[in-house]
């Protein structure tokens, strides 16, 4: 990858992160999903799992892609303080359980992003809270 391509894929506005996540997941690109996270990031999934390493984040993305997940994010707020940003986003997800049952969980994600040395933003913490009664996969 050349320098121009790298510059084009960096997230330089933290408010863009949830949409980059949505785009990567909907495109079926697990590697691009994981690239949006810092190495030491933590994710709390809407099913209640807490993921604390890149391998677990990748496995979650692969599982979501296998479930034909289609994510739609709607921004609520972005607050930036120095090299840290707080993002709040409402989301809707359409997916298929392994038995073929369609699910449509909804929720709100609260995320903390940090600016990296290269000026790009990545998730440090992603807390995806699903609505009460939203079915999911384990």
Question: What is the arithmetic mean of pLDDT?
Answer: 89
Radius of gyration: 15 Å
Structural class: alpha+beta
Proportion of residues in extended strands = 35-45%
Shape: globular
Characterize the biggest β-sheet: 7 strands, mixed
Cα end-to-end separation: 36 Å
Kindly state the number of beta strands.
7
The level of helicity is: 25-40%
Order of helices and strands: HHHEEHEEEEE
Unreliable residue stretches: 1-8
Structural description of this entry:
This protein is α+β, with helices and mostly antiparallel strands. It has 4 helices and 7 strands, in the order αααββαβββββ. Strands 1, 2, 3, 4, 5, 6 and 7 form a 7-stranded mixed β-sheet that branches. A hairpin with a 5-residue loop joins strand 6 (106-115) and strand 7 (121-130).
What's the SSE blueprint?
Layout: H1 3-9, H2 17-26, H3 30-34, E1 37-44, E2 50-51, H4 54-66, E3 70-81, E4 84-96, E5 102-103, E6 106-115, E7 121-130
Parallel strand pairs: 1-7
Antiparallel strand pairs: 1-2, 3-4, 4-5, 4-6, 6-7
In short:
The protein has 138 residues and is of the alpha+beta class. The protein contains 4 helices and 7 strands, in the order αααββαβββββ.
List its traits:
single chain, 138 residues, alpha+beta, 7 strands
